[in-house]
Automatic annotation (TrEMBL):
GO terms for biological process: epoxide metabolic process. It comes from Friedmanniomyces endolithicus. This is Epoxide hydrolase N-terminal domain-containing protein. InterPro entries: AB_hydrolase_fold (IPR029058), Epox_hydrolase-like (IPR000639), Epoxide_hydro_N (IPR010497), Epoxide_hydrolase (IPR016292). It comes from the Eukaryota. The keyword Hydrolase applies.
Amino acid sequence: MANYGKLPASAKLHPKPFKAHIDEEKLQAMKTLLKLSPIGPAVFENTSKDQGESLVTGKERRYGMRRDWLIDAKEHWLGSFDWRKHEDHINSFPQFTVPVTGDDGVTIDVHFMALFSENPDAVPIGFFHGWPGSFLEFLGIFGILKERYSPKDLPYHVIAPSLPGYTYSSGPPVDADYSVVKAAELMHKVMVGIGFESGYLAQGGDIGSSIARHLAANYDACRGMHLNAYFTGPPKDEEKAKQMDDFERKVMARGGAWRETGMAYAMEHSTRTGTIGLALSSSPLALLAWIGEKFLEWTDDDPPLEEILESVTLYWLTDTFPRCIYPYRGMFAGNRPPLVYVGKPSGYSLFPKELVPVPRSWAAATANIVSYAQHQKGGHFAAMEQPAALLADVEEWVPKAWHGSAVPEESGSAKGNAGGAPKM
């Protein structure tokens, strides 16, 4: 059997091999709660026939979750869904846990999935997930790489950590503040500690894009970033701000509709973080309604039900939700620092159903874009929805970033207007 689990000899941290396994007692407790969870009554807003189309997707979810979908999902979850099969698939990829202490003195047990190469020229790439995702978003990409390459000729080391508070990683402290910046600092320590002190690359979407940007902007070892979500407003130069093709103009209009009708969840996460964390920890069905809506609304085509249930089940069984929404806290307070221009070689993949899409010209105002691709299919969960397309973009960007990582003079200085789009 091919061994993708051999860490580089230069690793200074000593991760322990990890296998996903939930005790049967906890699994049965979830099923009991699910059986006892009632489906709310039929009302105008949750009936598929009269609800109307979403202004963002055109799907019949103008006011959110449909009652008929939730009924069918509950029945499938109880009668057909087999978590053990999903665990087996997860465990087909090497995984590890390692305690890492941040600059703030807080130690987090970090979980990560990885494919390590025996190729001495392999390029290390960290893949960073967002909310309501997890390392599961990258199973497709990792699967393609396993099929395509053996450990001897794999051209990359690929690492997908679970951010602090997500799934199998331990959570932030309960007696101190935590932030995306602190999480990013920890991710850097992971990448360097497992053997990539001489350099690595970072890829991300959603919260993962903020992680990747922080790494590229602040650490010499991170030689470049590739994002499928650029959270930035228009450049100060009005002419550059208007530079967009027909495709970009179309997706920008959709993004504007999402800002108008799809931000309620973020306001709740930001301003009543404790309340929503406790509320959704009371019922797996409630968690499915809240997170399932996002997987249905934020994608191009509805994902398979099994895929949605896999993510929601993992969230429930690992108590992820209340531990993981700290990045949203205070995001509407207006006190975010301006974006720092990233002069290192950066890539950008624009998918048509991304929530907050921006044209290349806007992205170029905050990063040195050396690789750019537009896609006709795909949404906010690009790695999950279109793994082959995103991987192809990353593979096109890697040699430009790895072999051309000289940092222009403007790197490290504020450039462009960082306002406008909300930070995820």
